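Dear colleagues,

As part of the handover before I leave the project, I'm documenting each prediction I ran so the next person doesn't have to rerun anything. This entry is a single chain, and its sequence is reproduced below.
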Amino acid sequence: MEAMSNSPIACERSFLPFGNEAFAGIGVDIVDIERLGDRLERSPRLRERLFAPEERELSLASLAARVAAKEALGKALGNPGDLSWHDVIVRRTEHGRPYLVLRGAALATANAQSLRFAHLSLSHDGNLATAMVVLEARDTRGGARGDEEPQA
């Protein structure tokens, strides 16, 4: 087996387009679980402000992951200023996979950006919770791979 060289790899095509879909945004956020717990203790109404009723009774680590998910979605959407914490709800499928439910301004922004999917990953370890959101939109340019010019 040959040793790999340290030379850069030349790339002639974009890796962003994916079939007839394209990545529209990526957002990542990290939340300090203990700090969130302190804030929730100091401000009892904060739990109601940040979380939908179905989210409020979850463990502190799960709540922190949800805050991270909501923040990550905002970043992936381009930080529109009119999002409300209640515009985004994190749920799990019957198999435990997390997903986002959008409503209000979050849904309006997603529709305006022609979003098709929002992929969500949550994790927590030690005192940190993290979330990553990848938004996928329909490619409206008409190319098979998304990198060709639209046809007239």
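Residues 20-138 form a domain with the Ribosomal Protein L22; Chain A fold (CATH 3.90.470.20). Residues 1-18, 143-152 have pLDDT under 50 and may be disordered.

All the best with the project,
I.
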